[in-house]
Amino acid sequence: MREVLFLNPKVTFAFVSGLLPLYAERGNWAMKKILVSAALGLMALLVFGQENRGQQTSGGGQSELNATTEAMGRGHNHEEHEHMGAHMHMSELRKAQPGDPAKAQQVVDQARPALEKYRDYKVALDEGFKIFLPNVPQKMYHFTNYQYAIGEAFRFDPTKPTSLLYEKHGDDYKLIGAMYTAPVRFSEEQLNERVPLSMAQWHQHVNMCKAPKGHEIEMAGKNPRFGLNGSITTQEACDAAGGTFMPHVFGWMVHMYPWEKTPDAIWSLERQLKDKPGSEHDHHDHGDMAGKH
Hints:
globular; alpha+beta; 293 residues; disordered N terminus
């Protein structure tokens, strides 16, 4: 587990935010506060370890890290990779209920003014957001606040997203949206309480076989066996290949683009797959992916 945690900060906060409530729910409020404080301290140590590990990584190690990131990023694109469906689990797209549009819009209305200051990405950095793999080219960069990530296991605050979403333009970053998270243990009813599932679909990355040590580069290759784009999707096949099976790579996630004009565009799942800086946005209904595992 230690190797997996240090490999990816997202896994770190998903791991902590997913497990902490299991203990906190059993105690009183005083115990919850103690556990939260302990978790924050643990998170700081893990993030520190991740950053220092990155600084000390050799050329070969950096290649492995880049390969892992590329595999995860390419794993999103189900149009290019036949195995993507087995690595993505979507919440069910529900029939709209009275009040759903207004509730979703309320989330947007709360978030939009709170996020305005982060148009200057330096403000985000000053307030504790950290760029996930800043030196690895990506279509979309996640600036993640790990304290907010832990907080989302206990509450939903549209003004405090787990991650800010940016496109990179030269040396500058353009803010385009935010990502909210929830523990993997959450039911769809709990997700619906946060953002109505008739308006947005949450997603999880699942059934990943992490490549054996020394073979990480294979996750970014053509027709890979490992990673979120890999052909291996079961514990048995992963064990046979010498990999490490991860039933859930992260917790639940949902993206929001609050400066778009329509609900479909604001809650678009596909934008991260299709958009390039400066291109026109191709938003469409993604109900055909509902319930995929």
